[in-house]
Amino acid sequence: MSRPRGPTRLSKPYPGSRIEILNDASLRSEGRRPTELRAPTFEVVPGGADSADGSASASMGLTSVRVEVFGPREGRSRAQTLHDRASVNVEVVWVAFGEAGRRRRGRGDRRVAELTSSLRDTFQPAILTALYPRAQIDIHVHILAHDGALLSTCINATSLALLSAGVPMRDLVAAVTAGVHGSTVLCDLTALEEADMPSATVAVLPRSGKVALVGMETRLHVERFGEMFDVARRAAGVLCAEMRAVARGRAREILDAMDSGPAVLREGENDSGAVMVEE
Amino acid sequence: MVAFASFGAPHTRITQDRGPAEADVDTDEDMDEGAGTARLAMPGEPITSAQAFMRGHGTYVDREDVVASVAGTVERVNKLITVRPLRARYSPEVGDLVVGRITEVQPKRWKVDAGGRQDAVLMLSSVNLPGGVQRRKLEADELQMRAFFEEGDLLVAEVQAFFSDGAMSLHTRSLRYGKLRNGMLVCVPPALVRRLKSHFIALASGVDLVLGLNGYIWISKHVRDDAQAGEDGFDAAAVYSNKNDDIDDATRAAIARVANLVRVLAAHSVPLSDTVLLEAYEWAVDQDWEVKDLVREDVAEALVAAVASR
Q1: Which among B12, B119, B201 has the least Cβ separation from residue A242?
Q2: Please, which of A65, A73, A268, B64 could form a disulfide with A157 given CB 3.0 to 4.6 Å?
């Protein structure tokens, strides 16, 4: 993730003033065009049995999230076990340095609780849970830095983490946050922009075009919503292609590493001196 | 309050005329794989037509297509299409050798964590009990199940059968199987342990290995083959003992060295086998590395290169 090279600016130059969302050249505060996404970075870490079964990190600009997936494994609590499918359990941890102002957000925090339930509701239908009766899939989300588009970054990271854990899914879920300024639709908002305009997070399953989640916390005229929704949906499709490319590259690396190892000894070729214990 | 304005270098621009991203998989591609390179599929990518082929593990049918549900290599057996995930939890098969840890003691059975999607079951009737291999299991045995295995104990067992919900049933009815002691456990991704002629390996340096197909690897002090068997081939006191034997310093170092080698090889996705481990061990001894140095990145890379080149 690159640190800002330009001068940092105060969110509000002086009290009462509002930031300029789009300048005369219709560029945003960081020089982005309205529907331009921030540079995304995705990292897929293959699972090892020693730690998580799979993990991934995603960042959009300065928003950075790491997700670890455990399972499907035996449910830790009997009460939560479902007999016909796996239960999906999400925990969100907002690290102490994850937000300007060093605000502590514990487990009871309203935003954390909302993120948790949004993530669970997004992935429960996307995961093929019916394949794993009585099992539990744990998704642990760590928010490392927050600069807008938090929920969509969490969704993208979780998608990749589930992929690296080998959990079967209908599709890679991808999400983008979009907002409306005047009549212009902006994609992938920063925290500054999010505070200043109506916005929605849209998560899609790009293959079927189905929408997994629409989250909007602000008020917006119904005529503006359609266009914003449409742009966010298409942006998510583009982002999904990006995520796929990263996952594919990582998969190819693992495959090559596994193939480059020496061939496994076949029966009767044991000349290595290893003492084989006969059955 | 200071806020950051981000200036990310290469922005992804979304043009208004671009439709939803299409998966870059040619649906009509011939299913026969090309020269040696395995075909990769990602979740949601169509593999082939559902009318001409059958769906196997790692896929689902969506309208006309067989679609991958996991990231992995596409495999075909006649008309059956499966996607084998690169990394996933252990999926058991009957006859597999596994290493597991007891998580729970229940009536007439133990629950065992064997790296699967559910805990495995070890029935009281599937273990060897003191006083004759063939004797009936009594109520008295049921009452003292913790004398044989208790929570946290490690054991090596074989997959015997499956229950209707897919949970595996284990058995330890062989002198090779049973409780583990005198060693340490290292966990690696199960995909790295391939099926071998024997999963019990004895290295020359007095170290025994049990390569569980579930990725749990037990590294222990070498026991003489006849030491395990007592009167009429079964010594219950030794088999169910919770006490380690004396392990001298050289053996401890050798066990730790093997453990580090296994970790390093697993971290570099090198499939584990008896030859690989033996060569890695010889290399580590030849190069005279300290046990702790083996996990250093430069040493690890040299090790992987050395093993791969042979």
Answers
A1: B12
A2: A65
Could you please state the CATH topology (level 3) that the domain comprising B97-309 is classified under: OB fold (Dihydrolipoamide Acetyltransferase, E2P) (2.40.50)
Going through A61-161 in order, the beta strands assigned E by DSSP cover: 63-74, 87-94, 135-145
Provide the sign of the torsion angle of the four alpha carbons A49, A50, A51, A57, taken in this order. Answer: negative
The string of pLDDT tens digits covering residues B14-59 is 443 333 333 334 434 444 444 457 889 999 999 999 999 999 999 9
Nearest alpha carbon to residue B159 among B208, B106, B92, B219: B92
Asked if residues A50 and B189 have their Cβ atoms less than 8 Å apart, the reply is no
Identical topology for domains B40-85 and B97-309: yes
DSSP string covering B105-130: EETTEEEEE-SSSS-EEEEGGGS--S
Closest residue in B to A204 (Cα–Cα): B20
Looking at residue A205, its amino acid is L
Q: Domain limits of chain B?
A: 40-85, 97-309
- Kindly list the residues from chain A whose CB atom is less than 8 angstroms away from the CB atom of residue B89: 53, 71-73, 166
Q: Which domains does chain A have, with CATH numbers?
A: 40-253 (3.30.230.70)
ipTM of the complex: 0.82
User: The domain at B40-85 falls in which architecture?
Assistant: Beta Barrel (2.40)
Cα B53 to Cα B50: distance, rounded to the nearest angstrom: 5
pLDDT tens-digit profile, chain B (310 residues): 343 433 344 444 444 333 333 333 443 444 444 445 788 999 999 999 999 999 999 999 998 999 999 999 999 999 999 999 988 899 999 999 999 999 999 999 999 999 998 999 999 989 888 766 667 777 888 898 999 999 999 999 999 999 988 899 999 988 889 999 999 999 999 999 988 999 999 988 889 999 999 999 999 999 876 555 544 556 667 788 888 889 999 999 999 999 999 999 998 889 999 899 999 999 999 999 999 999 899 999 999 999 888 7
* Contacting residues of B for A74, CB less than 8 Å apart: 103, 111, 113, 117-119
Are residues B274 and A265, on separate chains, in Cβ contact within 8 Å?
A: yes
DSSP label at residue B251? H
Q: Give me the pLDDT at residue A47, please.
A: 64
Closest alpha carbon within chain A to B9 = A39
